[in-house]
Amino acid sequence: KVRRSFPISKKLLGELFSDKYIFKENLGQGNYGTVTVVTEKSSGELLVIKKMPFKGMLDITYMMAQGEINILKNLKNKNCDKYTVCYVNDIIHEDNMYVVLKYNENFKTLSRVYSELSDDIKFKVVDNLIKGLHYLQKNNIAHNDIKADNILVNVTTGDIKYIDFGVSCLNSCFMIWAGTPGYMSPEMITLQQKGVQAPMNTK
Questions:
Q1: Distance, CA of 140 to CA of 171 (rounded, Å)
Q2: CA distance 54 to 135
Q3: Which of 70, 96, 111, 165 is most buried as measured by Cβ atoms within 10 A of its Cβ?
Q4: Cβ(2)–Cβ(31) under 8 Å?
Q5: Pairing status of strand 33-40 against strand 21-30
């Protein structure tokens, strides 16, 4: 059962981050938490804070959040602005994980906007998806859950960003089974070798 996660209040925002950020709006709530848009006082930059509740260090949400943080930290100084969201900061407070990321104002999930895309933009999206996948591979990352809900798209430019690295692998994959069943690779379903070094199953 997923714990209910309440949006971040202005008061809590100030207490957690020493008044570094100004509350702007709550974007919404997903399966694993809430997302809030804030403005950084020193730079005026828009950021998002993902709040994810967990029940202990062995809770699946905690482990997924830590895995995502490790990968985003690894990408922070490697052109993360191009194909992935960019990590800024994280903090744990009272069984909640707060992850601060750069806000991508003109991006929406591919699942929401696909029908709005022109053919020219679709070609650009596909091209950028391939380049983004190569970028992840080059940095020894296997995403493990690529689907339209985990891809952000700029409907004007066709730029993309891969998101949600909670079940991803960095260097080596030790998970037996991870991802969304309808989108899993054959080697994940059949429990064969996984990760960036695994041979591609083209059957």
A1: 5
A2: 31
A3: 165
A4: yes
A5: antiparallel
132: its two tokens: 């983004």
d(Cα 128, Cα 139) in Å, to the nearest integer?
16
For Cα atoms 57, 86, 174, give the angle at the middle one, nearest 5 degrees: 45
User: Could you give the percent of the chain with pLDDT greater than 70?
Assistant: 84
- pTM for the full predicted model: 0.80
**What kind and span of H or E run contains 11?**
helix 10-16
Residue 6, Cβ neighbours under 10 Å: how many? 13
Residue 62 pLDDT greater than 50, yes or no? yes
Cα–Cα distance for residue pair 4/25, rounded to 1 Å: 19
Residues 6+ apart with CB under 8 A from 144: 167, 168, 169, 173, 175, 178, 179, 188, 194
**What's the CA gap between 159 and 184, in Å, rounded?**
24
Q: 145 an active-site residue? A: yes
Burial group, residue 197, by CB count within 10 angstroms (0-12, 13-18, 19+): exposed
Backbone dihedral region for residue 95 (phi beyond 0: left; psi -120 to 50: alpha; all else: beta): left
To which residue do tokens 């409907």 refer?
Answer: 155
